[in-house]
Amino acid sequence: MTWKTEGIVLRVRNMGEADRVVTVYTKDRGKLTAAARGARRVRNRLLGSTQVFTHGLYLIFPRQGLHNLSQAEIIHSRQPLREDLEKFAYASYITELLDALTAEEDPAESVFSLLASALALAEKGRLKLAARAFEIRLMRELGYEPELYHCLNCREAVRDTIFFTEQAGVLCQKCAPQVPGSVRISNGVWELMKKLLEWEFSKLTVLHPAAGLEEELRQIMRKYIDFRLEYPLKSLDFLETLTAVPPGAD
Ligand SMILES: [Zn+2]
């Protein structure tokens, strides 16, 4: 029996002298880990297709313990994500976040599509937009969808003075003091969150939020996601080091 499925490489580590162990998020079977024998040899046909961020068609022999990845065909190499430091940092964050929040072999085709779309957007240089859209949509896919219209506490529709809690949603002015850690959010960020969550992914490129709004959203999403993470992400340190210098295009 073999599995033939589209997948995107989330993580790669070396094994032995010439092998790689790759963690791939697949369309049909969710996240899985497989050995790619000889993948580090110069002329090996798995050399390119087992690099991090590669979107390919993979042939996998299921095994107890570690599966065996035996053939691959590249669909999108995603080479630009590995060649530019800032793109690499954002793509690493996206893949590490997905890895941290998902279990092995728990398939969700919508998560696969979201990952593919986010990496394609990052490749185009829309890094912050790709990261924020990925975050909020991934939370929805994983069952932590933020409530953006009705106060989580009293269920009344929120209007102009809006607070957000990491427990996934908005609070009205009256209820916010009862929920520790809730933060006031601007109406601009509230509108942006709704668009990032509800618009078709391909339409998001028309959004060009101001830098201040982007930063406000980044901080809110950070708290909201960290609330669900069991350990800090390594890629965040790298990203923060990079973004401490004047940012590039986006
Ligand atoms: Zn309320």
Notes on the protein architecture:
The chain is α+β, with helices and mostly antiparallel strands and 250 residues long. It has two domains: 1-127 and 230-250, Nucleic acid-binding proteins (OB fold (Dihydrolipoamide Acetyltransferase, E2P), Beta Barrel), CATH 2.40.50; 145-227, no CATH class. The chain has helices at 79-83, 85-101, 109-123, 127-141, 187-198, 211-226, 234-243, and strands at residues 3-15, 19-26, 30-36, 55-61, 67-76, 162-165, 169-171, 183-185. The strands form two sheets. The chain has a five-stranded mixed barrel. Strands 7-6-8 form a three-stranded antiparallel sheet. It is elongated. The mean pLDDT is 95. The protein binds zinc ion. Zinc ion is lined by residues 151, 153-154, 156, 171-172, 174-175.
CATH superfamily of the largest domain: Nucleic acid-binding proteins
Write down the CATH class of the largest domain.
Mainly Beta
* Unreliable stretches covering 5 or more consecutive residues: none
Write out the strand line-up for the largest beta sheet, numbering strands in chain order.
1-2-3-5-4
**Known CATH architecture of the largest domain:** Beta Barrel
List of distinct ligands in this structure: zinc ion
Assign the structural class, choosing from mainly alpha, mainly beta, alpha/beta, alpha+beta, or little secondary structure: alpha+beta
How many domains, as an integer? 2
Order of helices and strands: EEEEEHHHHEEEHHH
> What gap, in angstroms, lies between the N and C termini?
45 Å
Radius of gyration: 20 Å
Q: How many helical stretches? A: 7
State the total count of DSSP E strands. 8
Overall geometry = elongated
Strand proportion, as a percent range, falls in 15-25%
> How would you characterize the largest beta sheet?
5 strands, mixed, barrel
| Overall pLDDT score | 95
